Amino acid sequence: MKSLWDADEARACAGDALALRVYTSRLLGREPDLVLHGGGNTSLKMKAANFFGDLEEVLYVKGSGWDLATIEAAGFAPVRLQVLRRMAGVARMSDAEMVRVQRAAMLDPNAPNPSVEAILHAIIPRAYVDHTHADAVVAITNTDAGEERMREIYGARVLIVPYVMPGFILARRVYEMTRDLDWSAFEGMVLLNHGVFTFADEARASYERMIGLVSEAEDYLERRGVLRVLLAAEPPPALPLLPLARFRRAASSVRGAPLVVRLEAGAAARGFAERPDVSAIASRGPLTPDHIIRTKRLPVIMGDDAEEEVARYADAYRRYFERHAAPRLTRLDAAPRWAVWPGYGTLALGRSAHEALVVADIVAHTIRAIQWGEALGGWRALPEEELFDVEYWELEQAKLAKGAASAPFQGKVALVTGGASGIGRACAEALRAQGAAVAALDKNDEVTRLFAGRDAVGVTCDVTDASAVATAVEGVVEAFGGLDLLISNAGIFPASRSIAEMDAATWSRSLEVNLSSHQRLLQACIPYLEVGLEPAVIVVGSKNVPAPGPGAAAYSVAKAGLTQLARVAALELAGSGIRVNVVHPNAVFDTGIWTPEVLRERAARYGQSVEEYKTSNLLKVEVTASDVAQVVCALAGPVFAKTTGAQIPVDGGNERVI
User: Fold this and answer.
1) What is the pTM of this model?
2) Does residue 483 share a domain with residue 334?
3) Using an 8 Å Cβ cutoff, are 64 and 34 in contact?
4) Domain that holds residue 160
5) Which ranges constitute the DSSP H helices of 95-145?
6) Rounded alpha-carbon distances, angstroms, from residue 47 to 55, 81, 481
7) Could you give the residue numbers annotated as active site?
8) CB 129 within 8 A of CB 95
9) Across the strands, what pairs with 588?
10) Tens digit of pLDDT for each residue in 403-448?
11) Is residue 204 domain-shared with residue 62, that is, in the same domain?
12) Could you tell me if residue 657 is inside a domain?
């Protein structure tokens, strides 16, 4: 591990101790082998002026909800140091009381809650304190001879603290251990099965001590030849995607909410999943108890029947709760947070694509550390009763009591065609804004730029190419674990031609894009929708279905056929719980098919100006793509949970339709 200290960057913080604290905290946060997704904490002791201008000794400690990689000065909670030190001298205190007293001792009531390790930071008599969950250090302590190995590596330079529950109990233990010790004898402190602390009166010294201590642990692993883990040598096999989608449905059912599933199928994940002993070594516990809030204690090991494996996992989790539960504890859901898929890799589950990615990152570090520990003589996590205490920590239970509202489509997976512009883009953006993981398809490459991120993917795809459509659908399932919502929208608006003037190419092209491509797309999606979560299909039709206009035979006939296809699909798919409904927009002018030329031509056909044509409906309003998207979202959601086969106009009111 190398120091990332940069003299020029540090010089910009000269004379500002808190700015230096932010800088070195971010250096730690850049290294995922030290901290992951909000893990670890840092602090600074300095004097600060209170409201009256009096100087007080203050601990600026990382606040709850901040990530070291991106922390700013506002992310540090200023707490009166004298109060924290007095708290350490109290024999007993609940963590809820600790949080309340810490908050009451803050100089700024608008700052975030101080870290639960604030008291521990306070009793270390150095200006800068750094705490990480370094993979190498924690992995070594998670072995049968972990404490002895730590002493072998560090000698007396590091204080070794046996594992105790984080929070007040840990702070009190260290306080009792160190009352008669000289802190100057130590470069750092190792919390067995938990993490490592370093400290100094200079920011750089504390940071580089962390780098140094962790490097020594990595060197220890290197000398014993255990840093290299098993990597899969062969290319990944073809994925059986239906079992993946069934697994997602089963886990979501146990969770009581839709989940996104992230597959990790790289050489490292597959190498771990291919180990003959993977069931045994993956089922001993997490890398550090801090991870259990996100990953639970154990993964599920997938077998031939994913639903059965999830059911067994849930039963085992309920028994685990019953073995350790105290009165008034609320059991968490029994769904797994990650899985080992033998032969294929690992799976991470989350209520959003971001949450699944966080779990996936933790899992990647965990499976590597497990293999290090196993190679050192045996991976050994904390006993399950210790892990239970962290998972059911009173502070976490308090969060449950508050509850948290989720977005309407949180955890759902949606596929939208024609996603680069107009109605398709508006639908994809609306679904994404309401929590769905979205795949947007379009033949326009721009779709890949518009939809890129953890919760969205843009796919260049010509919907008239059956092979490309099948590949795209499979890619969506592989990316997010399944498919719940299909917005079948892609279409073209041919140039106006009378039937007498109609050329074969225009007729065929309209039928191919506006009708046949939808049938092939639906066919490719049905197997996954059948195992989806509250699955729904919304087909984007046209006002021309109930009220066709002259010169639009190719378009009107294709859209009428598409509507008939949707009606038949509603009949056929209802038994699988799949709802199929149609929206019929009209005069949506902020879409790709309404070029200025087409708009002028259509207006002229009705003897109107362009502006008159835009609002030529009963309500005299202009209908936008966003308006249509809102109706699509409503049809996909719970309000229309008992509606299928419906056709909804979105046209401002049309005399001929009515």
Assistant:
1) 0.93
2) no
3) no
4) 7-223
5) 95-104, 118-123, 135-141
6) 6, 10, 52
7) 555
8) no
9) 623
10) 668 899 999 999 999 999 999 999 999 999 999 999 999 999 999 9
11) yes
12) no
